[in-house]
Amino acid sequence: VVPTVTLKSGEKIPVIGLGTWLSKPGEVAQALKIALKNGYRHIDCAHAYMNQDEIGQVLEEVIAQGTVKREELFITSKIWNTFHSYEKTKEAVDIILQQLKLKYVDLLLIHWPMGFQEGGEIFPRTADGNHMHYSDADYLDTWKALEEAVQAGKVKTIGLSNFNSQQIQRVIDHSHIQPAMLQIESHPYFQQTKLINFCKEKGIEVTAYSPLGNMATPFRKEGQANLLEDPVILEIAKHHNKSPAQVIIHWSIQRGVIVIPKSTSEHRLKENFDVFDFELSKDEMAKMAGIDRNWRILDLTARDGDHPHFPFNIEF
Ligand code: A2P
């Protein structure tokens, strides 16, 4: 049984979840079935990953079969940028429930603080193709619609993703239901300790995406080192007779950050879950802290950096 963390809402979230970003339709169902068979209960989804229909089919199937009970699952999804107005957010909540074939999701996040032009494509581009077509929708309106989704029983817990500390504070200051979760990029080369400490002080739990450094993302810049080959991590892995990925996943959990490693391979899905039979020493935790390089992989500055709600223009 995987340890859980209790959120502000009272809900319990398993500390490891299955990441589904970049899991192709056609692959994600298989990965999800393997993950569920091997004990995963927390699944991280999003409207924008364009594979929720397939995930929903598996969820419906396993719940109907009785192999997994709905209440044992922890399903996260995210409101996409083209649904930020109050009205559109309400629509998005229903679309997400329909795709996932669920009556409620456990956690619903605002995927990004930036709003994009509503009503059409997921990635509406400007005429020159270089930027996203922005909307001036304010994420406080998105938040209000999410609070009402909680009241309506469609969502258990609400939170944020890719928000900076000032934006989080602004939501806190204008909310009836406070955010319970922040999901951000975090791994040993981009530890985000200041933002994580800020969240912990506010009682907000943190989930790390791209916890293994996401070698597969198209946003990765050339020349960025592979986290899974880092000499410090390799040494610690050897000492515990574990793989580098297992050391990274355990390190994250040990520092109090929930992780959602993505895999579609049976071998690696099992590997990423087999991380509860060792502990890192104080000295090893210090060594891990020392390899931070402040390297953001999902760097959208070139594309969205001039958006009024772009989150990454300040220190944290
Ligand atoms: P695959 O799906 O073929 O397993 P992140 O979670 O940081 O986004 O990283 C996901 C990437 O890392 C995917 O390309 C995934 O490939 C790969 N990956 C997942 N688990 C492991 C592992 N235990 N060892 C090596 N690579 C892994």
Question: What can be said about this structure in brief?
Answer:
The chain has 316 residues and is an alpha/beta fold. The chain is built from eleven helices and ten strands.
Name a few traits of the molecule:
single chain; 316 residues; alpha/beta; TIM Barrel; eight-stranded parallel β-sheet; two-stranded antiparallel sheet; 10 strands; 14% strand; binds adenosine-2'-5'-diphosphate
Question: In words, what does this structure look like?
Answer:
Keywords: NADP, Oxidoreductase. Belongs to the aldo/keto reductase family. Pfam families: Aldo_ket_red. It comes from Plectus sambesii. The mean pLDDT is 96. Helix content is 35%, strand content 14%. It has a single domain, classed as Alpha-Beta Barrel (TIM Barrel). It is globular. The strands form two sheets. The chain has an eight-stranded parallel β-sheet with strand order 3-4-5-6-7-8-9-10. A two-stranded antiparallel sheet has the order 1-2. The structure holds adenosine-2'-5'-diphosphate. Adenosine-2'-5'-diphosphate binds next to helix 9. The site of adenosine-2'-5'-diphosphate has 19 residues, from helix 9.
